Fold these 3 entries.
Entry 1:
Amino acid sequence: MQVDVRCEGTMPLGHYLRKYAGISAQMIKRLKAVPDGITRDGQHLRTVDPVGSGDVILLHLPESCGHTPNPMLHVPVIYESAQILVCDKPAGMPVHPSMLHREDTLANWFAAHETESGFHLVNRLDKNTSGLCLIAKTAYAAHCLRGGVQKQYFALVRPGLQGSGTIDAPIARERESVITRCVRSDGRPAVTHYRVLKETTHCTLLALTLDTGRTHQIRVHMAYIGYPLLGDELYGGDCTNIKRHALHCGSLTLTDPASRETITLHAPLRAEMQALLDERE
């Protein structure tokens, strides 16, 4: 990772990294433990050494994905730079390996795509949610992106919902379930904003943004107001015409930690969701 120093006068490197580059004390400690973790002009640099405007500091923290690579998996890459990768995850693919999915996950695909990078998932999608997934290749990039990514989701519900609205209802885990969530007064705060984009005879297309990031938040909130996602069997959605919950992360806005450029990325609806919108009587 390259840090371009911009400051008046000089100051100790450690102070600059913490105050102006946003690097945590824990990460600085890890960088100091690596022989070439912090360098300037190819020379090792200590955190007490002075730096000034115009200095270019290179931070290097060796990382590995840690998952079994599976080169047979295919995931479209929407954007990639030295620090991050954004892909369009298909529905049906989990993001992390588990007992039932050991080598068919997004992590297994990434391990084959990036052999010498870490796998830091910035926005996690459920197995059957499709769309944009942001992966940081380094812990530093993940730290820079935390809390600074704007996401927009698209979902299909039954006809009838009009206009726009906000759902402000706390979400908790169902007492007898490991997976299922519900709206309950003792839950964690959760806020979802929705807007109707299109209505057909068969379904309504919604755009949704979140102020919080609770597990199953969109699915729980839409079921709570009487409009569960189509295909969402877990929360009472109609599965007649689609066999997975109709939810897609279609837009991300972020600042690339390397270039500092703010970018907005898009991924079109998956075919099964688009087909429902296009279906005629």
Entry 2:
Amino acid sequence: MERLNISLEDVKVVYDGPEGVLWELIMGEQIHVGGFKSSMELVQKAGIQQGWKGLDLCSALGAGCRFLVKNCGVTMCGLDGTQTMHQKAQERSQAEGLADKIELRLGDVTEIPWPDNTFDFVWGEDAWCYVVDKDKLVSEAARVLKPGGTLAFTDWIEGPAGLSDDEAKRINTFMKFPYMENLEGYKTLIQNTGLTLVSAEDLTPEYASYVDFYIKMLTDQLSYDALKIIGDDMELFQAMGGEMAFMGQKAHEGKMGRGRFIARK
């Protein structure tokens, strides 16, 4: 699959600008498919325990860290490469009275600024699709895990039916993904680090229904709010709607989806 020349700098443009606000409008603060419900499923699959220390990679608005602190009794660190997301995450952590339990840093997730064997678990939700060097990302995640520690993440992936080169280029260009890994690819990346793969689940059918849900929200309820975010540019709004409809079609064809992965060190 062709990898596009999309870098962290391109992703920063998205999340430092109106597109990032738009994704929060559609998907909530957690900015991932399934919100609270999906996060609780990942917690249960991973066996997250009270008192653990975790690291959320691509932590965005910090909602994943706050969710885990509030619902699992853990302490968290978050790492994200976008200044706007980092600043908002700090402000929201402070506003919710959780700043003493969450450490947030601005940086590159392929160069994690913590020592080896620091964390009981490393966490990610639907964001590693933005990372160019996923091999280095997973390797770094494994490095900072304590022996016996847990890697738990979800991500948007190429579905089991596979995308054509043209389909992948269209979706990745719109979403600012350098490429999407597939289920087998992530399994290989995980195993290459020496981690033991516990589970790798294809969530593509569920993912397709969520894309439909987001489109319906935008067209039936949130059109005014979305237009306001993008400067009332109706042409852009319609173009973005067309790209989301294309993604929905590919999801229903099993060509684009989502995976959930658990591994142990």
Entry 3:
Amino acid sequence: MEEDIKLIPLDTSALSLKVIEILLFDSAVEPSLFEEIAHKNIHRPEILRYLLDHPNTPGDTRQFVAQTLQLPVPHVVEETPEEPVSEEIKYKHRTQSLLQKIQKLKVGERIQLALKGGREIRSILLRDTNKEVMLSVLDNPRISESEIELIAKQKTTPDEIIRTIAKRKEWLKNYSIVYAIVTNPKTPIAISLKYMYNLKLKDLLMLEKDKNIPGAIRETAKKVAAAKKPT
């Protein structure tokens, strides 16, 4: 019987300032995260001061922080417009800066980041050299099924990651994820065979001709396709 995996929400009151800085550096950070961090860290003035001065802190949260610290609400100075730069260059610079910040963290901090970070952060940590960090990304409640499909599809994905994905019942309801698992050459053969019967006939017919797939998978695809063909 497959094990049901229960996710434990990460308490932001346990995060270091370095981890919080990176979480809020994410371009797609949700305003609710600022509010959560503020309310969970009312006894940590260094965190509250950071939020107070952060240019993206929502007004309501900034007001709450200022009242908690008994300080006036600071006037946020708008940034001076810079020379036009392409979105591609901006993205590269941002990703490089984010990567450098993450590389300075300890393993435990990277695991915390993996559990709470946004899409940019998750994409970086999925390539982390530490197995626990990589696996922790899969426990992030914000990870989407499209990300899981991409992870399961990539030939560079470690088999342990694929094994973990293949245990999650909620993800296996998505046909694209199941197909990605079965067709990835890195997937252990026993797992691919297990989900072969879930594939559509047209996909089975393609699989039996795919030379990049192990022979055992192609042979099974051929047999399952033959059984599914209308008589």
